[in-house]
Design brief:
By secondary structure, the protein is α+β, with helices and mostly antiparallel strands. The chain has two domains: 115 residues, no CATH class; 146 residues, no CATH class. Helices cover 42% and strands 24% of the residues.
């Protein structure tokens, strides 16, 4: 009986030690950021380092003083000033569906008040349905704008985590991606792998101001095939060959970083086979030659960017790079981002009454 009691006691002690070990050495949740909210099968992901842009002075040069921003007037604070990074994601065949993840220092009260003001300014109804998904609180306004047919975008909030905005179904996918990284499940995803690979190919590795990654699956390639066939025509052998090369591209990444007084653009395309990359290289060089002679490109000051474009092919990977002065890049961005007033109609002189 004593031997049995001793055995039971040993078993209980062993079980206790095992449970204590699991508790002490269990995987701790990882801190997640906006870049971790990209679903693995997202079609496009654009990541912007708002903090680096703000530090470089480019952000203020592009968007002007904060008191001139309409959103600032609605919210009572400048959202850009509180952002560190932002990621924009699009699913394949999303038909206008997208999601945004933001790392920002914004309280829940300020965020809800700002969202309500924006919805009201668009003629919507900010009264929201609130539900929980994973650890997030998801708020969906009854009507996001004056157009009742346009689906409202949801707002997902977590005290210590990225803020998410987008259609609810896609937000759920983004929250799943965050949970996977937080819990240490799975890989970082192809979009993150592409960004990391691009950074490692540059010495020293840069801190990107912005990156864009694209994953091209079979359905996308078939869509491109149809569009290019309509444009090039089945009888154009050279065009058809280049088209087949483009259809062999499975992924692409582009990054912008500032070094010195220049903004550098670098990119990488991955092909399924080497001959396909050779055809894509031929197409890029052909376009570069045509654009370098285009008067419109020169008029916009983009000539040096085209002239400096370099292309290198290594097996199934194609690398591209070019650069421009930071001041020139800011000037081009202003040209496209700043609103231009529409020309006023000519004044109409009243006709004298007929005698």
């Amino acid at each position: 009986m004593k031997a049995l009691s001793r055995s039971v006691a040993l078993i209980l002690v062993g079980a206790g030690v095992a449970l204590l070990s699991v508790w002490l050495f269990r995987a701790k949740p990882r801190a997640v950021r906006a870049k971790d909210a990209v679903p693995p099968d997202a079609f496009v992901a654009v990541a912007i380092d708002v903090g680096s842009l703000r530090a470089s002075g480019a952000l203020r040069a592009l968007f002007g003083a904060s008191d001139e921003q309409s959103v600032t007037k609605l919210c009572g604070f400048d959202p850009v000033d509180r952002m560190q990074s932002l990621v924009f994601t699009v699913p394949e065949g999303g038909d206008g569906i997208f999601g945004v993840a933001v790392d920002a220092d914004v309280s829940k009260d300020d965020l809800v008040r700002c969202a309500d003001a924006v919805v009201r300014s668009r003629g919507g109804d900010p009264t929201s349905d609130v539900d929980a998904y994973d650890t997030y609180e998801v708020m969906t306004p009854h009507r996001g704008s004056a157009d009742a047919k346009t689906p409202a975008r949801s707002l997902a909030y977590l005290g210590r985590g990225p803020i998410l905005v987008g259609q609810k179904e896609w937000l759920h996918r983004m929250i799943d991606a965050l949970a996977s990284v937080r819990d240490g499940r799975g890989s970082p995803g192809e979009h993150e792998t592409l960004r990391a690979h691009l950074a490692s190919s540059i010495s020293p590795p840069p801190s990107f101001l912005a990156t864009a990654t694209v994953l091209l699956d079979k359905s996308v390639r078939e869509k491109i095939r149809g569009e290019m066939t309509a444009e090039v025509g089945p009888g154009d052998e050279a065009g058809s060959a280049m088209m087949l090369g483009v259809l062999g591209v499975s992924s692409a990444v582009v990054g912008l970083f500032e070094r010195g007084h220049e903004v550098h653009a670098v990119g990488s395309l991955r092909c399924e086979e080497e001959p396909q990359c050779a055809l894509v290289e031929k197409l890029i060089l052909k376009v570069r030659g045509e654009w370098s002679k285009a008067p419109g490109v020169r008029a916009l000051g983009l000539g040096p960017v085209v002239d400096h474009l370099e292309v290198d092919r290594h097996g199934t990977e194609l690398s591209l790079r070019t650069s421009a002065a930071t001041t020139d890049v800011i000037g081009w961005a202003k040209l496209f981002l700043e609103p231009h007033p529409s020309p006023r109609p000519a004044a109409i002189t009243p006709r004298a009454p007929t005698p």
